[in-house]
Queue: 2 jobs
Job 1
Amino acid sequence: MSSNKEETIQLESRKAQHVKLVVEEEVGVDNVTNGFELFEVVPKSIPNTDYHKISLTTSFLSHSFTAPVLVAGMTGGYPEAQKINLSLARVCSKLGIPMGVGSQRAMVVNHDMIPTYDVKKEVPDVFLIGNLGLVQFSENFTLDDYFFAQEKIDADAMALHVNAFQELCQPEGDVNFTGAWDWLEKICQNSSVPVVGKEVGSGIGWEEVKKMQEIGCAAVDVGGSGGTSWAKIEIMRHEGDDPPFSLDDPTLRWGIPTSFATWEATEKTTIPIISTGGISHGLMAAKALAMGANMVGIARPVLKALMNGGEKEAETWLVYFIETIKRVMFLMGVSNIKDLRKQKDMLIPTGRAFQWLTRRKFI
Ligand SMILES: Cc1cc2nc3c(=O)[nH]c(=O)nc-3n(C[C@H](O)[C@H](O)[C@H](O)COP(=O)(O)O)c2cc1C
């Protein structure tokens, strides 16, 4: 692909604006939650386990990690992003958990941006998940662009994100997803590293997760609603430019809450599931894992901690988060992640979650 100056400038400023808005503004949608609070846990009064012997180590994509937690892909593609990604890489490497980078479109378009994603030069042992938007392939990306993105940063896996709602809310958005399924299959067939299908806040129903499994994805990040809303962020960026929805438009509530999507995917498919979207506390994470998720993903809370308090703060936030999962495991009477992932029967869906799961014939 040839470099296009206007596109480069647009991509750089958009990624910078995203970080600023996510850190400074309220970017969740009012009264929309990821639904984990609707699932009650049956406690164990006699846990029959030793808290000090509880292990969170787990395996994901054939690698071993100290906890089933990953920092979801966020940034890259403008000069300051290099510092953010490097900080996240150092923290993740220290804690023994994987991290993703944000969309690498900017470095495919402008090769000068490669260092903003290329954290392995300084932190070679971090497990790195690269990232491209699937819609880019319906537009003009080729398999060579995919290989370039993966190889230049030595990504251990590649996330292909789908974000139809976000694109719809950008005047410059790419809204032609024609052929995207075929592209995802082609990429899975040709990739030398595992491919992760990834939503960014609208969630994926089990029917599409199953299809992703069938065409060769190695894992799916169900990216449900209730966390950072990309539709809202794009509308905030474009207030005054006549965006497709106003900030109080009910369409902003679009999507499957993360907990519902996690329940569905873990019940109907056997592919490893990442549960991301509004997971801001270890209790939510423990519930996602008890449903059967393999990993939980966190984006905004870690970025906020990093931007407000530096690497130390991001690390402290993650350590507390992981420690809370361990505490909940103790109260549930399980001593390892394998057993935690078998605890779906100990979760009781209430209210809207019960109605959703009944209507979708899970109950
Ligand atoms: C600043 C920022 C930038 C993001 N950029 C990307 C991106 O380029 N590609 C992607 O797949 N997801 C991106 N995401 C989405 C996250 O990976 C995640 O799916 C979403 O934010 C929900 O998680 P959260 O509620 O914990 O923030 C970004 C998130 C943040 C906070």
Job 2
Amino acid sequence: MIEVRNLVKFYQSEPVLRDLSFSVAPGEIFGVVGQSGAGKSTLLRCFNGLEPYQSGSVQVMGREVARLRDKELKELRRDMGMIFQNFCLMNRKNVFENVAFPLRVWESHPALPKRVRRFLGIGETADARTRARVMELLELVGLADKRFERVQNLSGGQKQRVGIARALALNPKILLCDEATSALDPGTTLDILQLLQDINAHFRLTLVVVTHQMEVVKRICHRLLLLDKGAGLRLGRTEDLFLSPGGMGRFADEEYARLPSGVNIRLLFPREIARQAVIAAMARDLGLSFPIVGGKLEHYIDDVLGFLIINVPEENLDTVYGYLREKNLRWEALDDA
Ligand SMILES: Nc1ncnc2c1ncn2[C@@H]1O[C@H](COP(=O)(O)OP(=O)(O)O)[C@@H](O)[C@H]1O
Ligand SMILES: [Mg+2]
């Protein structure tokens, strides 16, 4: 759907995207995560042709963005909806008008005078189609009853729903989300993420989700790219990046007990391992028992995954390491225990 090869972009002499290569598959929810200033928004703007790039390639649905002419670029942007942190809505217009806006722009026929359009009946047909489409979209995002409300009177979550409805108006193939939940409280964030997941599943819409919030990528992204100062640090399946030895989860601040003796071992539970009763089985097989000193379970897309930290006495370490290797489990010893 999107193919990025050796992408390099500068602002003046400052490199902001450094040799990025990755691809986004059709129907995927792909995350781009990184701190503020990492280059996430710039990358999105390369996808829809709002930013030029100095070298490398960005192909969206098989076409090199930098080579598109005005008309083709317009079509590309129609196929890519976008939502933003600050919503970018017309605040003094009502919900209906905001969602209708892209339809009116796209369906208007500026070459024909209004009088002629009315004579040909173009205006009326387009209006009826617009009305039907807007109502369909408002039903989808759960705002049909707010259609005459001014946007400025809505809550943040409702505004983002309007943003989503507007972004979907022209039936895009790809939805670009730039910090779409960063201005929302945690509960509303979950509602919006659920809506995005539903839209992805229902329409097989490809989503690119840009965010600095790790909780967001864990919740909905199938795969992700970690950006750091414009460079791609990691690329892979979300749970693999977080739930691997030395993975991204390693740096999350976490609490666990430091016992006076023994070594703390983190056992990671990605999808493939989460359903096995690993600790109970190990205790039984080895005839040992282990105190649990820490752990964290979180929602990863549609599952609850995470890690547990157990404390293993020094004298049993070799046995336990041997067992963990033999069973092909994912683990790491925490040397600061
Ligand atoms: N129009 C611009 N001109 C010059 N520098 C810019 C411009 N836009 C962004 N930058 C710089 O590029 C870097 C990446 O910005 P941005 O893509 O907005 O990061 P992010 O979205 O990850 O916070 C930052 O250092 C930012 O200051
Ligand atoms: Mg940004």
